[in-house]
Fold each of these.
Amino acid sequence: MLNDVNTITVRQTQFKPEKIKAHYTESTLMSHFLTALSMSFPQGERFFVETVRNVRNQIHDEQLQKDISGFIGQEAHHARAHEQFNQLVQSNDYHLKNFEKAYEQEMIRLRTLSQRRQLAATVALEHFTAMMAGYMLEYPNIMFKGLSENMKNLWLWHAVEEIEHKHVAFDVYQQVFANLAQRRRSMRTITVGFISSTIVMTSHLVWQDRKNTLYSPKQVLKNTQTLLGLTQMMWRLLPDYLAFYKASFHPSEIDQQDLLIKAKALLVR
Ligand SMILES: [Fe+2]
Ligand SMILES: [Fe+2]
């Protein structure tokens, strides 16, 4: 059982690219938040893969080489699935096209940095994705309420695989660079960038969909609960977030194995 849990499995997603409504969870705000995250995935995850590939030839540990292959396979599939999702959920009056362009520019800038800084950025962002994935699996009633089976196949699948490969970029960074000061510095920069861009993108989607999100009393109530839920998420994740700054930190010290076992059982095969 332990081996199965620790394996990085590259799965085909059962998510079917079909028309997606802007609101696919019970709360419109939660849909906008998840969509904002999804918008950043395709470019972000391709960047993660590149940063690990850049230094892969310096890894001589056989198991880590295998894990890198699993990580690359999983992230490549995620990028493709979220690209499809992003195309299907957007319309003329519901989109983040300007942000996608801004992201592109940011990725070009990131690629001019040293390989160490690029990989440190990936390590920091992978910590964020693993923390949030764990939260999604632990509190599906906050994050996934009202999600259709097809949407679950996307979000649940992605969350499971993020937890499975959460140690890979970190281990590569430790074996190649092992620079603690850079790891901490990059986490501080990434924290500001990631949180502010997610808030700004979510707010843009909320504004574009203000008729359903802000002017409907029923939704205002649900969205207030969502806002409280997201604030609670930040507080609950704070200890795991702060743990990253410890010199001895390793992603596997955050135990998400039980969650992973339960979530895998729910994945449609
Ligand atoms: Fe991913
Ligand atoms: Fe990842």
Amino acid sequence: MSVRRLAEENVQPASFAFNEQNAIWAEATIRKYPEGRQQSAVIPLLMRAQEQDGWVTRACIESVARMLDMPYIRVLEVATFYTQFQLKPVGTRAHIQVCGTTPCMLRGSEELMDVCKRKIHKDPFHLNEGGTLSWEEVECQGACVNAPMVIIFKDAYEDLTPERLEQIIDEFEAGRGAEVKTGPQIDRWFSAPAGGPTTLLGDEASMGGTASGNAEGEGASVPPSNAARAKTAADETNPTLKTPATAPAAAEANAKAAAGTAEGEKPAPESGKS
Ligand code: FES
């Protein structure tokens, strides 16, 4: 794990400001939170600042702190904690974050880092000659089952070999990064076993297919579970009733049926009461 410090003063800009479009977005984002909870917008604001300028500067941290009425140190803590925030300039076409935690290490992350050292720079956080590429080692990115893997900006590239990582780096260097397939780089459906499911094979139709059969991400059709559901007959928890968002016609029919029931079930006035 690398030490996360702000960039040297000689690369820090004197000031930071959101551009007009991002400033409007930032104000709207802050308004989403209840009064007194505006500090919850710290992560989205820092991320938008990074998307605007490419990295999180000291001036940016101070500016976000002022916008959210937070002590500078609190925003600095957030920015230096998450490896998703870049604290110094990174490659303009790709910043490769190689997971080096145990599962990825056991599956070859050191060879992936050798590729980065050879193709980008011998040291992490250094730009290549053209300023287009950089790399670093990070801790677990939550895709251990598909180890080894790297993150490039917001996307994960998994089940990597050194050869495949070389190809991916070349694609990004050539400006074709958006065309590179994300996720598993082998015949695997998300995190299912390589080559297709090996368990629960009795009803393949409900499993949604295999790696090659459903690589576009069509979800499996699995009936909703009743586990931990409250035992109640309220309409809000009736799974057979469609919601207006998913089936407006069915929702209208439900509403009419409910109104009819309510009308028909009106209790008769009790005798002796006015
Ligand atoms: S150890 Fe690499 S993603 Fe978890």
Amino acid sequence: MNDEARSLQREFFRIDEDVIDRVQHLKSRLMKYAETALETVFDHLIGNPDVAHYFEITDNITYLRAGMLAHCDELFSARFDEHYYEATEGMGERHAKLEFPAHVYTAAYSNMFARIVELAMADRRSFKTDDITALSRITHYDIELSMGAFYRHIMDKRAALSSDAQKIRHLVD
Ligand code: HEM
């Protein structure tokens, strides 16, 4: 997708200058909440039989915590530049190569978002409605990009496997 198409996409998600300024101003607070919120997300994942085995290993959590926080930093910087798109789509592709079901990722986003909002509202200087709207817009856009890349990777892999199967059909028929 070229820059113009991406810009139109952001416009459709209503990510405008106000949203970008707002998120950039809130970035240090958002990062603080994200660090705390991550622990709730890990607790939730450990309780899910589809993924628990991965989270029982401490080193995996350490590695993932760093990756997820680095992504939060990327998202809350709200630059929407080439680096951001590569990182976000690359993350979706990495996830697509694992054996976990798609909903663990969307649920992690949902839990992370809910916990960040809870923390922001309970803080001394609580978030305003526009702050939450801005956070919601960029988060939904991030989900669209990463999960879009996730499904694209799976579809491309299926198409490649099916094309290989066609090529060797005469050998097995
Ligand atoms: C808010 C949701 C999530 C975000 C932002 C996120 C972010 C990332 C990022 C940035 C990486 C790449 C790390 C790197 O290259 O160093 C990654 C890798 C990974 N993520 Fe996630 N993740 C999310 C949810 C999950 C969930 C729910 C799981 C549960 C199973 C998961 C499992 C993994 C694993 C196993 C890798 C390593 C893949 C590999 O090494 O090939 N992620 N994630």
Amino acid sequence: MAITYKSGKQPHPKEHRLIFRNVDREGWNTSIERSLQEGGYEQLKKALKMEPKAITEEVKLSGLRGRGGAGFPTGVKWTFIPPNNTKPVYLICNADESEPGTFKDRYIIHQDPHQLIEGMTISCFAVGAHLAYIYIREEFPEGAQILERAIEEAKAKGFLGKNICGSGFDLEIYVHRGAGAYICGEETGLIESLEGKRPYPRIKPPYFPAALGLYMCPTIVNNVESLCHVKHIIEMGGAEYAKLGTPRNTGTRILCVSGDVVKPGYYEIQVGKVTMREVIEDMCGGLKPGRTLKAIIPGGSSAKVLRADEVFKVKQPDGSIKELTVWDIPMDFDTIAACGSMAGSGGVIIMDDSRSMAWVLNNLNTFYAHESCGQCTPCREGSLWMRKISDRIAGGTASPDDVGLLESVAYQIDGKTICAFGEACSWPTESFIAKFRGELTAATRPENKGRITNPETQVAAAAL
Ligand SMILES: Cc1cc2nc3c(=O)[nH]c(=O)nc-3n(C[C@H](O)[C@H](O)[C@H](O)COP(=O)(O)O)c2cc1C
Ligand code: SF4
């Protein structure tokens, strides 16, 4: 059946819709009846006839890498459950979607909840979990209701609960409303929160969730989008799925593009098959009229910033070295990492020449200072110091030495903390200073006092 989308929501020809196939689709709704009309839960029935280990093998073969941030291979993570385990195994769907610039999981939950439930149920069968949670951020109350309704529907049809589809496999899924903090998205903070405590992240090692997770039992934590892909891997087969995208960067992923482009929004692409230029100029309709590109944060707010005029030397699979401008970067995990940043959660933030880097960095540092859980000293104190110093820089009350001071604070955090929030909060400062030191230093001149913190004067301030 030909799929039509709501007015203004047609996918771009360079998109490949797998996970977002039903998002903003004409005639689609969240009911299980609508899902069943288009093959909903057929992959679950197929998976239940397979050996659980064979499902994990298909996911490994598919090359699927986690879409929550770190890009870790999903099937490999599943094999980390200790082989001689005798404790219960849990699966948690991370629906915290807390990384600024990221807005994909909420669309899946709001518009296609049964895709997620089917993907989760297959994944639970594969890893031997009989109890699973969807940890959804506090700020998504409607999403939580939609999921609860979908779980009830799935139970009524025998796709959840006892003896699913007559297979003998039992599974309950519960929706857990989050605690409303960025750190609840970090998997070990999330687990603490789910246990009813403050979301203080746990140190790894030893607390890798696959071995010591929820209630100190093996726990698989996967992102919403990652779990949805499992359904499609079962449908297509791992080898066929791996033909989507590029080697080591397989499948599709949803880019969430925000900032200074004509058409910001979500775009599902084959990983690595589309360049930054195609994202900005073709899919997003280009930069705003009369503007030029200044910087890009390619994978959510904690990813290191890229300057528009940077050129990178990137090693190719055949061993040769290729020069790439920012515009040439294929949107995949490995190339973006080779360019010194990360593909992260898929949140692509575009900044044009109207943006003051002092203002942007201060905006980011204000967020991170607010979100540190406070457990470890470098992060608790350092994130606040970074905010105070970048406040001064953006407000024109800093001294030129403050830029170096800010930089040294960032490097005192990075690598010295319990969880990866330490890197998440210091990478923006480290990269903004490395790439825009001149502009940040110029902002400390007394004549610029008060010019940058006011968004209306940002255009003038950006010319500093
Ligand atoms: C500070 C911080 C915040 C995070 N927030 C999220 C989040 O909101 N959603 C998410 O899926 N992963 C988030 N992650 C990554 C998770 O810890 C974890 O790696 C991920 O849920 C694993 O799923 P995946 O393998 O499917 O990507 C965050 C990590 C850190 C360090
Ligand atoms: S790095 Fe920051 S967020 Fe992570 S545990 Fe330490 S204080 Fe908490």
